[in-house]
């Protein structure tokens, strides 16, 4: 399945957030979208998911303009997890995850054995199986985030878009989620993900899109595009970029005030 943005311009009111953006999500790969706050990362992902309509350009899903396709058909082919979603009051974890199966169910159809199996798999894969009967409003931020990811997994789409899915998670759970996305990708899913952590993006993504002020600054394999100039231009940060000692992928080491300067005598 292919998903791509062509000459995409998207705005809020009179302000353009994306300006003539061309971004393909390579089929069968993990694409990470990175950049400073307010650069257009989430706007791009929301436009890919058909939640925003471009003022110019288009998003193509398997060659068809995504806004011309039936909603149910898009939901069967494209899963989207937004940033900081808000659930209905009183919803349990299992109820939430079952909602991921709605695009596959006909109106009035009872839950099938396949639906239950997908829900059980998603709960187990995200480590929230023991919380299935708990109301979401009684969970920690990290537990709620994993429940939302489970809902997206239960939707069982060939393409999965996630906007900062590691938000609220401690480091161990961040890596568990990213490792899970690698497993899903190895099963054939195409994944687009917005990440704040450049080092995680470099380690886990095949393809990286670095955005600056509503435009694509650079795109390609992390090892081919991530260097100290990119970090400075995209994030406004002085750094050293060295090989990750575990994976060999680029690793950004920020440069701040050094310990020696902090300890200089008055």
UniProtKB/TrEMBL annotation:
Main location: membrane
Transit peptide among keywords: no
Domain ABC transporter: 3-238
Subcellular location: Cell membrane
Annotated transmembrane regions: none
GO molecular function, one term: ATP binding
Domain of life: Bacteria
SUPFAM superfamilies, alphabetized: P-loop containing nucleoside triphosphate hydrolases
PROSITE patterns linked to this entry: ABC_TRANSPORTER_1, ABC_TRANSPORTER_2
Membrane topology term: Peripheral membrane protein
Alphabetized UniProt keyword annotations: ATP-binding, Cell membrane, Ion transport, Iron, Iron transport, Membrane, Nucleotide-binding, Transport
PANTHER family the UniProt entry points to: IRON(3+)-HYDROXAMATE IMPORT ATP-BINDING PROTEIN FHUC
Protein name: ABC transporter ATP-binding protein
Organism of provenance: Solirubrobacter deserti
Upper taxonomic lineage: Bacteria, Bacillati, Actinomycetota, Thermoleophilia, Solirubrobacterales
